[in-house]
Amino acid sequence: MNKLTYLKKTIYNQGKNDFYCDLNFLSEINKIAKLKGKTVLDIGCGEGRLLTLFSLIGKAKYCWGLDSAEGIGSGLDILDLFKRHIKVLGLKNIEIINEDIGNYESGNKKFDVITAVYSLHHIIKTRKNFLKDENLKKEGIALFSKIYHLLNKKGVFVIYEASKHDLKGYSKFYRKLLKASFVNYKSKHTAREYSALLKKSGFQKVYTKYYFRSYYLNKFKWVFSTPIINFFINNHYFIFSIKK
Predict the structure, then answer these.
(1) 22, 61, 196, 241: most buried by Cβ count inside 10 Å?
(2) Residues with Cβ < 8 Å from 85, sequence gap 6 or more?
(3) In the prediction, which pLDDT does 72 show?
(4) First to last CA, the chain
(5) Which of 209, 217, 214 is closest to 237 using CA atoms?
(6) Which of 221, 242, 244 is nearest to 233 (CA)?
(7) Can you list the residues of the chain whose pLDDT is less than 70?
(8) Helices in the chain by DSSP H: which ranges?
(9) Architecture of the domain made up of 3-242
């Protein structure tokens, strides 16, 4: 079994939709971050699906996966599963760190790219608006300032998150109509909130891109990747923050 077959059948055991969606996802990140030859830290790596793609297909130089393996969405064996994948695939450029970003100390190590893919809502566990609460604002700025200082010059911090403004979350009828799943983590935030904190944390360039995640409709994603459509159909967005 070659490496790509292993990826599809083992790591992406829910079907080709997830695999090809993540390839499109990798393509979006590559447009800004250009992973080839770069060092990458993934905050909340889980079982390592994305880091495996970063290494095998994105051709990243070296990857670190940071995860405490605790809390909603994690299992006690999730990092062991990741280690098993790394061993089978023979990947020598991925390292797993069993720690959360709050306690993580890198020493003198810095990274070219840092990603937080669907993990921030596990770290800052509140639905309150950052911009209307001074304590929360300080907490957010402290987190993003730490990430800023972990980056090399011209490094890129990539956030991928779900917005708290999502019609599926407000209407059970609409959810049934779309036959869509909805997980209410009670800790989602808008791109505007995160962007404001990122700018206060030192990032000079901050870009938001609403993103429609679909394998079958990928050719038409530019039609769906807008704030309005985002609210009605797919409530996800990227934020790319660049350190000068």
Answers:
(1) 241
(2) 10, 11, 47, 48, 52
(3) 46
(4) 43
(5) 209
(6) 221
(7) 1, 14-17, 70-76, 164-187, 212-235
(8) 3-6, 16-33, 49-56, 78-89, 120-123, 134-150, 167-170, 172-178, 191-200, 221-224, 227-232
(9) 3-Layer(aba) Sandwich (3.40)
Distance CA(4)–CA(8), nearest Å, equals: 6
Cα gap 45→43, rounded to integer Å: 6
Cα four-point dihedral sign 29, 35, 38, 42: positive
CB count in 10 Å sphere of residue 6: 16
122: Cβ–Cβ under 8 A, 6 or more apart, which residues? 44, 71, 72, 73, 74, 185, 187
pLDDT confidence of residue 16: 58
In one letter, which amino acid is 127? R
Q: What are phi and psi of 66, to 5 degrees?
A: -110, 120
